[in-house]
Design brief:
rod-shaped; binds adenosine-5'-diphosphate; transport; five-stranded antiparallel beta sheet; Phosphate regulon sensor protein PhoR; five-stranded mixed beta sheet; alpha+beta; ATP-binding; 51% helix; Beta-Lactamase; HisK_dim/P_dom; 4 domains
C-alpha cells in the first residue's frame, strides 16, 4: 500500500475508534452503553453508505467531477478511481489520435488499400483511393463480398489461390476502364488480408511508348539496312585491280559482317517487340521429334564439326504451344552453346519428363561457363558477360531475352546452371498442362 493510502486507512480506523470511544463514554455517562454504542455504529454505517453513494455518483456522472478534498479512506478511494479514470481517458484519447493518424495516412496513400476478411472474403475497410481506383463506396461496400464488388476482375480465382496468389499486373480498373492497375494480395494476419491496388496507367503508357518506339525504329531501319546489305553483298572485289583489291577486300568483308550483325539486331528487336505485344500465342501441338532433329542439324551447321553434338529425346511426349516461337527460343540456346564452347567441346540437347508431369528441354555445353554473379541478369536485353566475346561470336545480346519471353508465353521457366571453365546447362521447364502425348518414343543422334 502506498504511504498516502496507508495513512488515510489508519486515519479512518482512528476516527472509528474515537467515535466508538466517545459513544462508550457517553453510554457510561447516560447508563445506556449498548444503546449508545449501537446508535454510534449505525451512524458510522450510514456515513459509509453516504460516502459510497458519492463515489458511485461521481463514477457514473457524464461529466468528470473532481473528488472533494479530504484525507479519509473514502477520499483516497475516490482519488484513486478518479486518477485511474483519467489515465484511461488519456490512453483512449491517445489511441484514438493514433488511429486517426493511421487512417489519415492510409487515406493519403495514392494506392488503394482494402482490408478483406479471410474466411468470408468480405470487405472490412478501405481507404479513399479505393473509391477512385476500385470503385468502392463507403458505407455501401463495407461487409460486401470482395469478388462481387470487383466483378470484372478475375478476383475469385485469385482469392482462391490465397497466400500463393501471384500479383495481378496490368488489369483494367472496375471503376474506370481507362485506369490500369497492379493488384497484390498480402495476408498480414490469420484472419485479415490486405488488397493493395496501384495505379500503373502512366507506367503502362510509357512502357507502350517504349515498345512502339523500339518496334518503329527497328522497322524503319529494316529497309535501308536491307538495301545497304544487298549492295554490299553485290560488291565484288574481283573487278578491282590487285592493289585496290588488297586494300578494299578486308574493309568490305568487315562491312558485310557488320551489316549482317545490324540486320540480325533489327530482326531480334522486331521479334522481341512482336512477342511483347502478345498476351498469348496461338497454341498447337509441337512435334518434338522433328524439332529436336532440326536443332541437332542447326547445331552441326553452326559448329562445323568443331564440337561433339548429341540429341537425346527421352521424354516421348510433345509440347503444346507455338512451334515457331519455341523453335526460335531453343535455336537461341543451341546457338549460344555452340558460340560459347571452344572447339573440341561437347553439346548435349536433351528432352526429358519432369517429376511434376511436365517436360524439360535442356541444352548442356562444356564451354566457358558463366560466373554466378551474372546468372540473375542473363536474360536482360543486351546483357553480356564479355562484350568482346559476344561480339566476336556474332551475338546481339537479345537471344536470352527472346528465350525468356517465349517461355513466359508458355508459362514455362528458364533455369541456368553453370560452372566457369566447365560449361553451362540451360533448361526450359514446361508444366504438365503443356505436355501432349506422342504416338511413339524416338531417339536420334544428329
Ligand atoms: P548474345 O547474343 O550476346 O549471345 P544472349 O542473350 O544470347 O546474347 O546471351 C547473353 C549472354 O549470356 C552472352 O553474351 C554470354 O555472355 C552469356 N551466355 C549465353 N549462353 C551462354 C553459354 N551457353 N555459355 C556461356 N555463356 C553464355
Amino acid at each position: 500500500m502506498p504511504p498516502h493510502t496507508r495513512s488515510a486507512w489508519f486515519k479512518t480506523l482512528g476516527l472509528l475508534a474515537l467515535v466508538l470511544a466517545l459513544a462508550l463514554a457517553t453510554g457510561l455517562l447516560l447508563g445506556h452503553v449498548g444503546l449508545v454504542l449501537a446508535l454510534a455504529a449505525l451512524g458510522v454505517v450510514a456515513w459509509h453508505y453516504w460516502k459510497l453513494r458519492g463515489v458511485l455518483l461521481r463514477l457514473t456522472a457524464r461529466r468528470r467531477i473532481a473528488p472533494p478534498a479530504g484525507d479519509g479512506v473514502w477520499n483516497e478511494l475516490d482519488h484513486l478511481l478518479y486518477r485511474g479514470q483519467q489515465e484511461m481517458r488519456d490512453r483512449k484519447r491517445r489511441l484514438i489520435g493514433m488511429l486517426r493518424a493511421y487512417r489519415a495516412v492510409a487515406d493519403a496513400l495514392p494506392d488503394a488499400v482494402v482490408v478483406v476478411e479471410r474466411n468470408s472474403q468480405r470487405i472490412a475497410w478501405f481507404n479513399a483511393a479505393a473509391t477512385r481506383l476500385l470503385g468502392l463506396h463507403y458505407p455501401r461496400d463495407i461487409a460486401a463480398p470482395l469478388g462481387e464488388r470487383l466483378q470484372p476482375l478475375p478476383i475469385a480465382h485469385w482469392l482462391a489461390a490465397g497466400r500463393n496468389a501471384e500479383p495481378l499486373t496490368d488489369t483494367a480498373s472496375p471503376g474506370d476502364p481507362d485506369l490500369r492497375l497492379s493488384l497484390r494480395l498480402i495476408p498480414y494476419s490469420e484472419d485479415l488480408w490486405l488488397l493493395v491496388a496501384r495505379d500503373i496507367t502512366r507506367l503502362t503508357r510509357l512502357e507502350q511508348m517504349r515498345r512502339d518506339f523500339v518496334a518503329n525504329v527497328s522497322h524503319e531501319l529494316r529497309t535501308p539496312l536491307t538495301v545497304v546489305h544487298g549492295y554490299l553483298e553485290m560488291l565484288d572485289e574481283s573487278g578491282l585491280d590487285p592493289a585496290a583489291q588488297q586494300e578494299w577486300a578486308p574493309m568490305l568483308a568487315e562491312m558485310r559482317r557488320q551489316s549482317q550483325r545490324m540486320t540480325q539486331l533489327v530482326e531480334d528487336l522486331l521479334t522481341l517487340s512482336r512477342l511483347e505485344a502478345q498476351d498469348a500465342l496461338v497454341d498447337e501441338a509441337v512435334a518434338m521429334a522433328p524439332l529436336l532433329a532440326t536443332l541437332g542439324r542447326e547445331a552441326q551447321a553452326l559448329s562445323q564439326q568443331r564440337h561433339a553434338i548429341t540429341v537425346e529425346d527421352g521424354a516421348g511426349v510433345d509440347l503444346w504451344g507455338s512451334t515457331r516461337e519455341l523453335h526460335s527460343a531453343f535455336s537461341n540456346l543451341v546457338g549460344n552453346a555452340v558460340r560459347y564452347t571452344p572447339a573440341g567441346g561437347s553439346i548435349a540437347i536433351g528432352f526429358a519428363r519432369a517429376a511434376d508431369g511436365g517436360a524439360v528441354l535442356s541444352v548442356r555445353d562444356s564451354g566457358y561457363g558463366i560466373p554466378a554473379t551474372h546468372l540473375p541478369r542473363l536474360t536482360e536485353r543486351f546483357y553480356r558477360i564479355s562484350t568482346s566475346r559476344s561480339r566476336e561470336s556474332g551475338g546481339t545480346g537479345l537471344g536470352l531475352a527472346i528465350v525468356k519471353h517465349v517461355l513466359g508465353l508458355h508459362q514455362a521457366r528458364l533455369e541456368v546452371t553453370s560452372e566457369v571453365g566447365r560449361g553451362s546447362t540451360f533448361s526450359c521447364h514446361f508444366g504438365p498442362e503443356r505436355v501432349r502425348p506422342r504416338g511413339h518414343d524416338s531417339w536420334s543422334e544428329a
